[in-house]
Design a protein that fits this description.
Layout lengths: L1 E5 L5 E2 L4 E2 L4 E4 L6 E4 L4 H11 L6 E6 L22 E7 L8 H8 L15 E7 L14 E8 L5 E8 L2 E6 L10 H6 L5 E5 L4 H6 L8 H11 L4 E4 L7 H14 L3 E3 L5 E4 L1
Parallel strand pairs: 5-6, 6-7, 7-8, 11-12, 12-13, 13-14
Antiparallel strand pairs: 1-4, 1-15, 2-3, 4-5, 9-10, 10-11
Length: 274
């Protein structure tokens, strides 16, 4: 069993009408180890919750789909990053990366002009890695093999989708992705037979037509990919901040008429894959 915790749904906190970018927490069934994908402002709440429950883990891995502001701006507020006993690995996964220096990305947003505490003064022991194959950094958690596959996809500046296979279960994350005239066949294969697909669904079909080049998908495209890949469950994410709760609830109802096992991601949502 793999757990996926949403802290919170990307862009809009569904049921709270606030803009709060993403951090995804992956947790093993016995809750002894976690891994994190992306570091939006939701990472602050995650760090706080880890402190409250007394969670201890020698090394925390944070992998990144890409490095736009809404996916890194929670990092300076992540409580474990201020613990001198904590080791944190910041991981860029995938081939053909365009990032030249991963450390500089985080140093830049924490310069004295922008933030009172600089990266070197946070306290934790940071490791910055850029690798094509991330599987070795997740394999061996609780003695269960974990396979991680990254696929570069279309988004301004570049971004990656992830497929995580563990204990016979498959989680796929495709956020901040813009398909062309056709659904990206590489992502269909990446999501093939997944137990859970988390997919960008920022726009309606009409909105997408007006926002080509902005790097996101429509609800219809997310469902189409899920159907083509034969996934079991679909979580729609990256809500547009102009979509209020009432609108999103109507969209969710419509999506379920086409794909019954679809749900719109909400702040603090936890989905168990078992």
């Amino acid at each position: 069993m793999v757990r996926e915790d949403r802290y919170p749904s990307v862009m809009q906190v569904f049921k709270n009408s606030a803009v709060t970018p993403p951090a995804y927490k992956l947790r093993s069934p016995i809750r002894t180890r976690i891994a994190i994908i992306d570091a939006g402002t939701g990472l602050r709440n995650l760090g706080r919750d880890l402190r409250v429950i007394g969670h201890e883990q020698e090394q925390i891995v944070i992998a990144f789909t890409h490095f736009h502001w809404d996916h890194i701006q929670g990092f300076p507020f992540f409580a474990p990053a201020y613990d001198s006993k904590q080791k944190i690995t910041l991981l860029a996964i995938g081939r053909n990366q365009t990032v030249n220096n991963l450390r500089e990305i985080f140093e830049a947003q924490m310069q004295a002009e922008y933030f009172p505490v600089q990266l070197d003064h946070m306290g934790a022991n940071f490791e910055f890695l850029q690798i094509a194959d991330a599987s070795k950094h997740f394999t061996g958690i609780n003695n269960v093999e974990t396979v991680v596959t990254a696929q570069r996809h279309n988004h301004p500046g570049g971004a990656y989708s992830f497929r995580i296979e563990r204990n016979g279960k498959v989680l796929v994350l495709c956020t901040d992705v813009e398909h062309g005239e056709q659904i990206d066949p590489r992502l269909v294969e990446l999501a093939r037979d997944a137990d859970l697909l988390i997919h960008d669904a920022q726009y309606t079909a009409e909105e997408l037509h007006k926002r080509r080049g902005w790097g996101h998908s429509s609800f219809d495209q997310a469902m189409q990919l899920a159907e083509m890949a034969g996934v079991k469950r679909l979580a729609l994410t990256h809500h547009d901040p102009d979509h209020d709760d009432e609108f999103l609830e109507r969209i969710e109802k419509l999506c379920r008429e086409r794909f019954p096992n679809a749900v719109l991601a909400r702040e603090g949502m936890e989905i168990t894959i078992c």
